[in-house]
Amino acid sequence: MDLAYVWFFIVGVLFVGYFVLDGFDFGVGMSLPFLGKDDISRRQIINTIGPVWDLNETWVIVAGACLFAAFPEWYATLFSGFYLALLLILLALILRGVSFEYRHQRESLRWKAGFDRMIVIGSAVPAFLWGVAVANIVQGVPLDVDHEFTGSLLTLLNPYGLLGGLTTLLLFFTHGVYFVALKTDGQVRMDARRLALRSGLLTVVVAAIFLAWTVAAAFGNGAPLVGLVVLCAAVAAVLLIASVLANTRDREGWAFGFGAGTVAFAVLTLWVALFPNVMPSSTDPAFNLTIENASSTDYTLTIMTWAAVVFLPLVLLYQGWTYWIFRKRVSRTTIEKAAAAAH
């Protein structure tokens, strides 16, 4: 198989990794107003992702770098056309990262509440806009003969794009609440289970509509891998329902695992529906950016392939080791003792 096609799916896997890992970070951040009844519980929630959020976020940097190297034409069109949406995502991620680092610098409740709001905003904005962006890439955007985006931010806020944003927002929220239930104890854990049930049922409805729309569009556009699109969508739907059922039985690990699988197969559904294009043109199919006309040279892709073979397993091992080290639950008692000692 041509290396360009291999790298199309490698980049897809990198984005799957990003959305699965940073997705529950977003969900944890968005859950603060619902689960954080006092400062101790809010610290408990934030500490569940404290050791890993920045490591999870690096996946988007790696994915973006690989996109730039493997598909420079796609990268140029995407980042020039979607610059405002991507800038908002970047600013939100900076806002969230700053909040994690500065929230604990003062004991003032007003100070902490301000940064808590920034964490919520910095989590919700990317969770929504990533869905809008990816849905529009799959649906197609106005491109001219030079593969330049001719629309605006409002062009992206179409019904399918907005539904995609709402779907990722709810998916990540539920995924994050599963993680909170898995990593905490006491009242926060109980509240997270109940919240996950309510958000999970809503997510099932919204995600079903979005996946059905995606499958119908794939059939209508004559996507060459339409059978695989249907399969990925079906697996995502089954895993989402399984996560809700596991949560009702207090099987937190299974619920989180099924939730991660849901996010992964939902992203794969969109990625497979996109094939063999990387950015379809809604202006004229002749202006489509495809895997072949957007990719780098074979020499570049060969070097990248060897680099991926060497370094990707090391990255996965390091990330796995990090999660193993911080595998224990975040106890409310431990935080209370630390707060008492600080005073």
Task: Write up what this structure looks like.
It is a multi-pass membrane protein. The chain is mainly α and 343 residues long. The protein has a single domain, classed as Formate dehydrogenase/DMSO reductase domain (Formate dehydrogenase/DMSO reductase fold, Up-down Bundle). 80% of the residues lie in helices and 1% in strands. Strands 1-2 form a two-stranded antiparallel ribbon. The longest helix has 35 residues, at 186-220. It is globular. The termini are far apart.
Helix content: over 70%
Structural class: mainly alpha
Give the terminus-to-terminus CA distance: 63 Å
**Strand and helix order:** HHHHHHHHHHHHEEHHH
Name the descriptors:
single chain, 343 residues, mainly alpha, Formate dehydrogenase/DMSO reductase fold, two-stranded antiparallel sheet, 2 strands, cell membrane, transmembrane
Summarize the structure.
Helix content is 80%, strand content 1%. It has a single domain (3-342), classed as Formate dehydrogenase/DMSO reductase domain (Formate dehydrogenase/DMSO reductase fold).
Per-chain topology:
Blueprint: H1 3-30, H2 32-35, H3 39-47, H4 53-70, H5 72-81, H6 83-102, H7 109-139, H8 153-156, H9 159-183, H10 186-220, H11 226-248, H12 252-274, E1 277-279, E2 289-290, H13 291-294, H14 298-325, H15 332-342
Antiparallel strand pairs: 1-2
